[in-house]
Amino acid sequence: MDLTGKTFGKLKVLEKTTKRYQYNYFYLCQCECGKKILILDKSLTSGNTKSCGCLQKEKASEIGTKNIESNSNGILTLNKKYNTNISSIINKKPKNNATGTKGIYFNKARSKYEAYIQIHNKRLFLGRFENKKDAIFARKEAEEKYFQPMIESYNSIKTTIKKEYYE
Ligand SMILES: [Zn+2]
Fold first, then answer.
1. Are 11 and 29 a contacting pair, CB within 8 Å?
2. Separation of 58 CA from ligand 1 center, angstroms?
3. Distance between CA 35 and CA 50 in Å, rounded?
4. What are the φ/ψ torsions at residue 25 (nearest 5 degrees)?
5. How far is the CA of 42 from the centre of ligand 1 (A)?
6. Contacts of 97 (CB under 8 A, 6+ apart)
7. Interatomic CA distance for residues 115 and 104, integer angstroms
8. What pTM was estimated for this model as a whole?
């Protein structure tokens, strides 16, 4: 049996080598991508190996791109639905905020803490509090009420995509 000259998927068999594994010989093959590679005859004839590995890489990157697209599409739709940037909610690190807690501001004139939540592109006032702790609590309550459903939808999109990728 000599496979020289035959084509298996993207692989063209160049020559039979003297290298062997048990009763099987290694063939020098050239892939369509230009790479040369040694492949066991058994792997070629069984149809297990159809490229130097670039085929799988192509497929993976195709799936990867598709996932990134459906991922961002799904999340964009979600953002639109809630009129909110959900990843900014999930990324809870506050920016430029003197109190160090997102949505909590110190009202100097009244000497009180104020809690807000950004929802549907509007800032919703949650109340004015003596203690920062109470303000944080009000904010947390509002987060659970408004953000939790969004975060759940967001996570379910991500999980679906992950599942698709591995199936
Ligand atoms: Zn290749």
1. yes
2. 10
3. 13
4. -100, 150
5. 19
6. 104, 105
7. 5
8. 0.46
Ligand 1 center from residue 31 Cα (angstroms): 5
pLDDT tens-digit series, residues 31-60:
999 999 999 999 999 988 899 888 877 777
Residue 154 CA to residue 41 CA, distance in Å, equals: 48
The candidate with the shortest Cα–Cα distance to 74, out of 163, 157, 161, is 157
Residue 163, classed as helix, strand or coil, is helix
- CA 71 to ligand 1 centroid distance, Å: 29
Distance (Å) from CA 25 to ligand 1 centroid? 20
Please report the pLDDT score of residue 6 as a whole number: 97
pLDDT(124) > 60: yes
Distance between CA atoms of residues 91 and 78, nearest Å? 16
Q: What is the pLDDT of residue 162?
A: 52
Tens digit of each residue's pLDDT (9 = 90 or more) over 141-151: 888 888 888 77
24: CA distance to ligand 1 center in Å? 22
Cα–ligand 1 centroid distance for 46 (angstroms): 18
